[in-house]
Every structure is written in structure tokens, then in C-alpha cells.
Amino acid sequence: xxxLENLSKQDxxxxxxxxxxxxxxxxxxxxxxxxNKFDLETAIELDKQxxxxxxxxxxxxxxxxLNMIPGGGIPALAKAFDYRxxxxxxxxxxxxxxxxxxxxxxxxxxxxxxxxxxxxxxxxCKPVGLIEFGRxxxxxxxxITTKCIACPPDKHPEDEWCSWEFEIID
Length: 170
Hints:
This protein is α+β, with helices and mostly antiparallel strands. It is built from five helices and four strands; from the N terminus they run αααββααββ. The chain has helices at 9-37, 40-65, 73-81, 110-117, 126-140, and strands at residues 91-96, 101-108, 144-150, 162-168.
């Protein structure tokens, strides 16, 4: 068994990055298998179901790791984003606007960037993102609402793939 205590900080970072890439590759291969067996629409429906469960599990594990309880509001959500699996391979920015609102912007997306390099159109991930981001935020704090600002197939700025607004409305 690998002894993590003997690894350098850089080796640990590389290990986390590889794990995130492997996780994403598995997700991609799973999706392609579902799309090939059925069709794009069915694969997206199945992906939504998978993300509905995964986003909750990921958020609960992050809360536990950070010794936080649900209900921490926007500050807790912003912190939790840094511990998501994709945070090791995607670039994003969270703009906190007051105590009850933030905007999340995905600046680079491993999946979309790869499709772009291959000359493929944007993957229409908005239906899955609505589930993923919504369930993740709700698990961190049930008072948080999630709104999509832009996500493929929507038009989006050149320097970001998607953007999401999270807000607690009193």
C-alpha cells in the first residue's frame, strides 16, 4: 500500500490531479457507453440521475472533512467548491457578493476544453449542471437557490464555460 506520508507535497498534488482525471475519464467513458447504447438524450437523463446522487455524496463528504454542518450559507458553499473533485483539474472563480449571494464561473473545463481541441461542438451539459450544482448547493445549505446564468448549449463568454448564481433569499 502506498505510504502517503512519504510523498512530497508535489507528489501528493500530482496524485490528486491524476485521481481527478481518472474520475473524469471514467465519467466520460460511462457517458459514451450510455450514449452509444441508447442516444444522447437518454444518456443525459441517466447522467442527471447519477449526478443527483453523486453531488449529494460529494457535498456530505466535504462537509464532514471540513467539520462543518449543513446551513453555513454562501461562505460554506464557496469553501466547499475548493474541495470538489473537479477543482484539481478545472479553473474556476467564485465571486462572493454580500453575505447571501455568489457567482461561480468555470474558466476552464477539462471536458469542454478537450472537445474544443478535437474540433467538436460544446457538450450540452446544462441539464446535468442544473442537477449537479443545485443538489450540491442544497446539501451544503438547503436555503441556497441555484440559477444558471449560462451553460452549454447556451451562448457563453469566450473566457468561461458556464456560470451559476447561488443565493439565499430571506
